[in-house]
Design brief:
- The chain has one domain.
- The protein starts with 6 loop residues before the first helix and ends with a helix.
- It is mainly alpha-helical and 250 residues long.
- Helix content is 75%, strand content 0%.
- It is found in: Membrane.
- It is a multi-pass membrane protein.
- It holds the Pfam family TerC.
């Protein structure tokens, strides 16, 4: 139980909960839409069982993701995807959830929630696997704890979370930058960059005495990732704002 006294464990757990809540807003909307036609007596059952099925599938996906991140170049791909997800959080596409079908049958609603959550969970899975990678041997425990804490918040507190984000847009900005931070740290710890004995044609990161990438390099890359997401998001929003008047004239 020594890990409970580790700041890294609690920091990673906090990051996972924040990621789940920020990226779980869409999932909360899907749950509401899928269950909207159920009789009131069955609505709570649909939400609980649909969410439970989605949690189990997500834990399995994350277990595979954490294993895959040990392979060379996959952290590269994961880091690029995280930056893209972070930018989308800051400058979201104008897309709705009109294609989510409500059902008046309990099992059909549960199936809709699980399938939709599975499709939409790719961003959560990559981000959570990246946040958990610094927790050593307790990565999987972190993931499960993070999900258990954050899922009830998403399901029953989604409206509150959405209102907070609308009132304090800085929360979304900081969330996007957090994803960029995780992406930067993930990139420089890719085995292709951090393993001096293999893939010697690649640029190698400086290592400390224990063979890990230097903390200064990790923090520098994390800061760069956070700033990259912020800058890209601001540029996209500025371009959209500039293009809007031109479109209105046509």
């Amino acid at each position: 139980m020594d890990f409970l006294a580790s700041p890294e464990f609690w920091l990673a757990l906090g990051q996972i909960i924040i990621i789940d809540i920020l990226l779980g807003g869409d999932n909360a909307v899907v749950i509401a839409l899928a269950c909207r036609k159920l009789p009131p007596a069955q609505r709570t059952k649909g939400i609980i069982w649909g969410t439970a099925g989605a949690i189990v599938l997500r834990v399995i996906l994350i277990a595979f993701a954490m294993t895959l991140l040990a392979l060379p170049f996959l952290k590269f791909v994961g880091a690029i995807l995280l930056v893209w997800i972070g930018v989308k959080l800051l400058a979201p596409d104008e897309e709705g959830h009109g294609d989510v079908q409500g059902s008046d049958k309990l099992l059909a609603a549960i199936k809709t929630i699980i399938v939709a959550d599975l499709v939409m969970s790719v961003d959560n899975v990559i981000a959570i696997a990246g946040a958990a990678q610094n927790a050593g041997e307790h990565q999987f425990l972190l993931v499960v704890l993070g999900l258990l804490i954050s899922i009830p918040i998403i399901v029953w507190g989604s409206q509150l979370v959405i209102k907070l984000m609308e009132r304090f847009p800085m929360i979304i900005t900081l969330g996007g930058m957090l994803l960029g931070w995780i992406a930067g740290g993930m990139l420089v710890t890719d085995p292709a960059l951090a393993n001096p004995d293999k893939w010697q044609w690649m640029l190698k990161m400086p290592l400390d005495a224990s063979g890990d990438v230097l903390d200064t390099v990790k923090y520098g890359a994390s800061v760069a990732g956070a700033l990259l997401v912020l800058l890209a998001g601001k540029i996209i929003l500025a371009r959209r704002a500039a293009a809007a008047p031109a479109e209105q004239q046509h």
